[in-house]
Every structure is written in C-alpha cells, then in structure tokens.
Amino acid sequence: MCSNKGLMLACQSGNAAGAKHSRGSDIFVRSERIDSCAEFLILASNGIWEVMKNQEAVNLISHIEDPQEAAECLAKEALIRMTKSNISCLIIRFD
C-alpha cells in the first residue's frame, strides 16, 4: 500500500537566507529511492519550499497531468505567497 504520491527534493544554495548568491554557491545534493508508488517528483528551489509545506505542494498539483502546467502552478502559487527567494521548479511524472 502506498502512502505518498509524490517525492520532494529541495535544492538549496550554500548561502544563508537573504544573502546574495554568488556563482560559487554550493549546491546540496541528496539521493532518494523511488518506489513503484511514486506518481511524480517535485524538484524545487527554496522559492517554493519557504512558502509551502511538502504536502501542500503535492495537494496543489496531484490532479495536474501535464508536468509543465504543474510546475507553473507551483511557481505561481509561490509568487502569490510572496516568496523572497528565486523560484526553480521541475515536475517529473512517472507512468
């Protein structure tokens, strides 16, 4: 039985929040095992995660089949919630 539809990964720069990002910012990389229950993957920057929780993001896009539309939906919602960070978002749907 599957409990999670989506898997969330956040990309964060090595700089403190509010600091200017330099070209030399560190990127933190994490690996996750994806099982057969996963319907999609959300790969997003701080601009998304600082204004919404994981489950909020999943609930917001779980009904959207088109990955491009789902990513745009998350980005627009982050802007509505007045994120202070840059927004990057990639949705990968699994068959």
Automatic annotation (TrEMBL):
Ranges for domain PPM-type phosphatase: 1-94
Entry's Gene Ontology molecular function annotations: protein serine/threonine phosphatase activity
Annotated SUPFAM superfamilies: PP2C-like
InterPro entries per UniProt: PP2C, PPM-type-like_dom_sf, PPM-type_phosphatase-like_dom
One Pfam family from the record: PP2C
Taxonomy, superkingdom: Eukaryota
Record's protein name: PPM-type phosphatase domain-containing protein
Lineage of origin: Eukaryota, Viridiplantae, Streptophyta, Embryophyta, Tracheophyta
